[in-house]
Amino acid sequence: METEKVVSEAQELPKAIVRRVVKDTLSRCSPEDSDINVHKDALLAFSESARIFIHYLSATANDICKESKRQTMNADDVFKALEDIEFPEFVGPLKVSLSEFKRKNGGKKAGSSQNKEVQKKRKTGGPSKKSVGKSTPKKGDTGEK
């Protein structure tokens, strides 16, 4: 009996996004042939190749992070990993994309203190910006005191 390696759905890249990236890239390489069809097997090969690349890059970046005696991987770990796995030509464009992303998002960080405060209020049932000044009576409550 042949044993096949099965990739869980959680590890698969979204097929629609892979298809869009492949088609966009191919249309830029060959502008005169704008309606490019890509066979399902080719899309699967692109998807699996990208998944393996992401896995390899993240494992290498994780090793770099651990060598630095840190637990949280950062962008510099990824840049160094790209150089270590011999893809230094990706570092420049990735840095540009990262700075553009930060600029568009106004320097917001997921773990900012303001964001944590909002999350804490939501968890504790404290008032949020939407509910301040609004009162909805509970079932059986007439609103009278």
TrEMBL record:
GO terms for cellular component: CHRAC; epsilon DNA polymerase complex. Its main location: nucleus. GO terms for biological process: DNA damage response; heterochromatin formation; leading strand elongation. One of its GO terms (molecular function) is chromatin DNA binding. It is found in: Nucleus. Residues 101-145 are annotated as: Disordered. This is DNA polymerase epsilon subunit 3.
